[in-house]
Design goal:
Distance between the termini: 69 Å
Number of helices: 18
Shape: elongated
Strand order of the largest sheet: 3-2-6-1-7
CATH architecture of the largest domain: 3-Layer(aba) Sandwich
Largest sheet: 5 strands, parallel
CATH class of the largest domain: Alpha Beta
CATH topology of the largest domain: Rossmann fold
Length: about 500
């Protein structure tokens, strides 16, 4: 008999300052393995998309005195999770040991006999200023820096902050978690000897697309922050290095800086579009309207995959079809060569790229990624392949696909069978809270990458924000928008993700 499960291991992982790209490789690997995730408010919602299916998610965030669970409760929860799950990930904003109370949690786990491991994270004390063009050290300005928390309150008798020592310290000073008492802290520092004309900056939502920064002096920072509407979470920097922001602020120069862009693709497909937009400075809101599910008739799908090697042509309409088809194919066949001598057709470059991942090149692909153009390409190149009459073809697609390929090729006397590889269904989970953000904050641009994303977005009855511009991936999606009385402000020229991103950038010029 196997030994009774006693407890698993808890990993205290630093989520970094906000940009999910700053998560360590080890941290991401562990998140992907997690059986249970206990996470804070400052952990990027995008990281929830890395979890495996079935992972339990427990939110324990703290914001402005509003605690989902007191610290004592979090400590006890981690022990409970360790007794229930082999791998529990405690995801904390920034670094677990930099004002993150990770030390308290580790001590509690140690006393309870629970194995744990610390995975450091990039602290916002360094990354926040860097993303605003402020290096915390520079040999022309300073060779040391001090990090302190303003959370305790500078004038509290029980405060452990050495205000006089901080004011007297040389070099850069970085304050975390002190926005609620910013004015009092700045005044206390000045009274302790800090020069009120010392350059100062406050950076809200540092390293994310929501980043906002103001520069001033120690004496005027509180007023500048109020005027700009900056609040928590924010990093405050004091010192001559702040003056370098005018030269080194690289993020605000990105073409989509300040633009809030909504991505409506499935969570599995969104990463490419999200990463490209984020790299250009956009504040990306992942709002998946659909998800890819198994086909209604799994048996028919399986039989079509088994019979695939007997066809003259395999036609793929989408990357999802390729993924689902070959997941099933390799469950039956061990070697890609068992696909036989079939020629391959793909509707667009995204589908062709997915086929290339498994070593298959396409024989036919239209210049424009629409079904009508694929049929036209067969017409143009018919003699090259001996025509399509009496040729057997297996068309791999989703259940909601338009019938153009089937109907038109059948008219040309091809023998077309269908392989329904997946179904597109409404996304019912809003793990990132994007729906609430859209209602409360609005958006500058909303992207649609298929007719399904349009229809399911409209079915959500979410408001289309005033002055929000629409970006469409191609003519079929544009036609679906027209059904709802909507006209896109821009349409991708090549009907691909890179082309859609180019179109969005062009709107900023």
């Amino acid at each position: 008999m196997a030994a009774e499960f006693q407890h698993g291991k808890v990993y205290l992982i630093g989520a970094g300052p906000g940009d999910p790209g700053l998560m360590t490789l080890k941290g991401r690997d562990l998140i992907e393995q997690a059986d249970c995730l206990v996470y804070d408010a400052l952990a990027s919602p995008a990281m929830l998309g890395w979890l495996k299916p079935g992972c339990e998610k427990i939110y324990v965030g703290k914001r402005s005195g509003n605690h989902a669970l007191p610290q004592k409760g979090i400590n006890e929860l981690l022990v409970e999770c360790a007794r229930k799950y082999p791998c529990t990930v405690r995801l904390k904003g920034g670094d677990p040991y930099v004002f993150g109370r990770g030390g308290e949690e580790a001590l509690f786990l140690n006393e309870a006999g629970v194995p744990f491991e610390i995975v450091p994270g990039v602290t916002s004390a360094i990354a926040g200023p860097a993303y605003a063009g402020i290096p915390v050290t520079h040999r022309d300005c300073c060779s040391q820096f001090t990090v302190f928390t303003g959370h305790e309150g500078a004038h509290k008798a029980e405060s452990s902050l050495d205000i006089s020592g901080i004011a007297a310290a040389q070099g850069t000073k970085v304050m975390l978690m002190g926005m609620s008492r910013l004015r009092e802290t700045m005044q206390a520092l000045v009274q302790a000897g800090q020069g009120d004309d010392t350059p100062a900056a406050a950076i809200q939502w540092a390293t994310t697309g929501r980043q906002k920064c103001v520069t001033a002096t120690v004496g005027t920072l509180a007023d500048a922050v109020e005027q700009a509407g900056i609040a928590s979470p924010a990093v405050v920097v004091l010192g001559d290095v702040v003056n370098l922001a005018s030269c080194l602020d690289w993020r605000s120069r990105l073409p989509l800086s300040g633009q809030r862009v909504v991505v409506t693709r499935t969570r599995e497909q969104a990463s490419d579009l999200v990463s490209q937009l984020a790299a250009l400075g956009a504040d990306v809101m992942e709002l998946p309207t659909i998800r890819i599910a198994d086909p209604t008739d799994k048996r028919d799908f399986a039989e079509a995959v088994v019979d695939a090697p007997h066809y003259d042509w395999l036609i793929f309409s989408s990357p999802n079809g390729v993924k689902r088809f070959f997941q099933a194919f390799f469950a039956v066949y061990e070697d890609i060569r068992e696909i036989g001598g079939a020629r391959i057709a793909a509707v667009g470059p995204g589908t062709a790229a997915e086929l290339k991942k498994i070593g298959l090149m396409v024989d036919v692909m239209p210049a424009r990624a629409v079904a009508e153009e694929l049929v036209a390409e067969f017409d143009r190149r018919g003699d090259e392949f001996g025509g399509v009459a009496n040729v057997t073809m297996l068309w791999v697609h989703g259940e909601q696909a338009r019938r153009v390929i089937y109907d038109e090729l059948m008219k040309r006397q091809a023998i077309v069978d269908e392989c329904l590889a997946y179904s597109t269904v409404p996304e019912t989970e809003d793990a990132t809270g994007a729906q609430a953000r859209l209602r409360e904050e609005g958006a500058d641009i909303i992207t649609f990458t298929s007719s399904s994303t349009v229809r399911h977005f409209m079915a959500m009855n979410l408001p289309l924000p005033e002055n929000c511009r629409i970006a469409s991936i191609g003519p079929v999606t544009t036609a679906t928008l027209a059904e709802y009385g909507l006209k896109p402000d821009v349409e991708a020229a090549a009907h691909t993700i890179p082309s859609l991103v180019e179109a969005i950038v062009s709107m900023q010029k």
